[in-house]
Amino acid sequence: xxxxxxxxxxxxxxxxxxxxxxxxxxxxxxxxxxxxxxxxxxxxxxxxxxxxxxxxxxxxxxxxxxxxxxxxxxxxxxxxxxxxxxxxxxxxxxxxxxxxxxxxxxxxxxxxxxxxxxxxxxxxxxxxxxxxxxxxxxxxxxxxxxxxxxxxxxxxxxxxxxxxxxxxxxxxxxxxxxxxxxxxxxxxxxxxxxxxxxxxxxxxxxxxxxxxxxxxxxxxxxxxxxxxxxxxxxxxxxxxxxxxxxxxxxxxxxxxxxxxxxxxxxxxxxxxxxxxxxxxxxxxxxxxxxxxxxxxxxxxxxxxxxxxxxxxxxxxxxxxxxxxxxxxxxxxxxxxxxxxxxxxxxxxxxxxxxxxxxxxxxxxxxxxxxxxxxxxxxxxxxxxxxxxxxxxxxxxxxxxxxxxxxxxxxxxxxxxxxxxxxxxxxxxxxxxxxxxxxxxxx
Length: 442
Fold this sequence. Notes:
Blueprint: H1 14-28, H2 36-71, H3 73-79, H4 84-93, H5 106-118, E1 125-128, H6 135-144, E2 153-157, H7 166-171, E3 172-173, E4 185-186, H8 188-191, E5 196-200, H9 207-219, E6 221-222, E7 231-232, E8 236-241, H10 245-251, H11 256-262, E9 265-268, H12 279-294, E10 300-301, H13 303-311, H14 317-331, E11 335-336, H15 343-350, H16 369-391, H17 396-402, H18 407-416, H19 422-441
Parallel strand pairs: 1-8, 1-9, 2-5, 5-8, 10-11
Antiparallel strand pairs: 3-4, 6-7
């Protein structure tokens, strides 16, 4: 029997692939009468056919993604001419699936509009933003509004995986593949098959792990550790980071090809301090959430407390606000005040209430002795921080380490005294350059 040759047909359509498949199936009917070389030739032809089907599948996915983006192009063009409230309403009118609340901030609306357009395409999405801005929430938005919505949503913190277990964690392993592998185990890519895999803190992943993820994204297939079997996966990947991956790629600490593979659609979430209109909505939302979990009525807040919550800068963004509301709901019975805030935040609040020592008011209408002591203490504290920043070249982390204090607390103290740590870095750099110039002159 003469084996079928694929060279007679062109793999330009599904029709040609079906013709090849029929011919291959006809040849397999005589498999019991074939010699080993002929069987191996058939297996080789099967592999060729599989590759052509994969190529057509990728082309089809690309065309579908392009069509989806084209259909929504008119919506994007018209969005720029709408008011912020109209853009927000337009998102909701398009059956935008979102669990939570959001305001009319233009940067945030732009992020949601991009996510809403990208979700149906299945393309990889990279979400950038500071810690606590809601990157995982946006990843769930992409999942809930996409074609993988009925599949699982699997989240992985890349920074928490030991380097020697990255491959096993992501792709699984066979029993006996290494010490401790007592049974077969699925990896995250396989567990998310038909759904979405959220790779949080992707910038923390070592280069060795980045190579393996790149291979899985390109071929859409994986291998468990210790196995030769190829497993096909249809997994949508959404990655998130609080670092600048482009700068990391230029510095060689993040693979450039993986960066471009992940950032087909890139979304940047603004910090909470840049979207203050959302704070009152979030406070009420988290109050209701806390009341439900604690099984008590929503806590009421004093005017002074609400003013502080609306004006505070939130280094930890939405996550910090949520934790604050839950703390207030837990510690206060029915009515929360500033006394229920954490100590470091009460320090920040009190700085606006301390009179100046340089006031020329009469003693009878001036500051008390207690206030004078506190103001003097604050001046000493400010001087200490400024001197320490000079010594640490403006490094907050190093300053926090030397004085044995939490980094976020140091940031609160710097904000309290209006100290900009960045100018100490500039001053230090200028000092070094002047010193270098003098050395050259000498």
